[in-house]
Amino acid sequence: ETGVTQTPRHLVMGMTNKKSLKCEQHLGHNAMYWYKQSAKKPLELMFVYSLEERVENNSVPSRFSPECPNSSHLFLHLHTLQPEDSALYLCASSQDNSLGEQFFGPGTRLTVL
Amino acid sequence: DAKTTQPPSMDCAEGRAANLPCNHSTISGNEYVYWYRQIHSQGPQYIIHGLKNNETNEMASLIITEDRKSSTLILPHATLRDTAVYYCIVRVRNFGNEKLTFGTGTRLTIIP
Asked: Strands A44-50 and A53-57: what pairing?
């Protein structure tokens, strides 16, 4: 248990569906992150939020839409995804945005049909 | 951030010390060396980090060469649960956001 939870753990969706991934951290951290891990590829940073404001967007397609309503919750809204978007989506949080280590959740395994 | 080079895979006997090398020859003075690991089907887990001096915690030791161009992560008494992919990351302090760039890492297999 890292103090970062993600739901759902597994998700199968069609290309026309709209779904959301949820991340919650119980650590009092003020920075949160979304990463994508495709098969046989390194983890890719997607988004960074610091104090509920987006500070990094790594050229992610608009079919991925993040939302950070407060410092404990982070969402990733998905719509009209492609099969190549199938991957493990990982959420992480850190105490601050300088040197603190990141705590990762268990991830959501997403399959797009 | 400086690039890192790690061997793709290593084996280590259970109970022995596992020494995982990392080259970061282009590291700059304000970049830290971080180590994370990822056990199969789980999120990455922070292990240790350092700037210049050697560091030790309950999980591992980090040895950084004097010129800082390479480092070694040491798991002193490897167990089967240490089987994982180990990532060496060199990261600049970037106030405003903290950006970890993961490479392909070293797949460490602990042999019974």
From this structure: antiparallel
Question: Which residues between 34 and 73 in chain A have a beta carbon less than 8 angstroms from any beta carbon of chain B?
Answer: 42-45, 48, 50, 55-56
Give the residue from A91, A112, A110 showing the smallest Cα distance to A102: A91
**Tell me, what amino acid is at A36?**
K
Rounded average pLDDT over B17-21: 98
Q: Across the interface, do B43 and A94 touch by the CB < 8 Å criterion?
A: no
How far apart, in whole angstroms, are the C-alpha atoms of residue A12 and residue A84?
A: 13
- Look at residue B23 in the predicted model and tell me its pLDDT: 95
pLDDT digits (tens, 9 = 90+) for A30-80: 889 999 999 878 889 899 888 777 877 778 999 999 999 999 999 999 999
- Pick the residue from chain A with its C-alpha nearest to B85: A42
> What pLDDT, on the 0 to 100 scale, is given for residue B8?
96
Query: Which residues on B lie below 8 Å from A96 (Cβ)?
Result: 98
Tell me how far CA of residue A113 lies from CA of A80, A82, A87, in angstroms.
11, 8, 12
Distance from CA of A70 to the nearest CA of B (A): 17
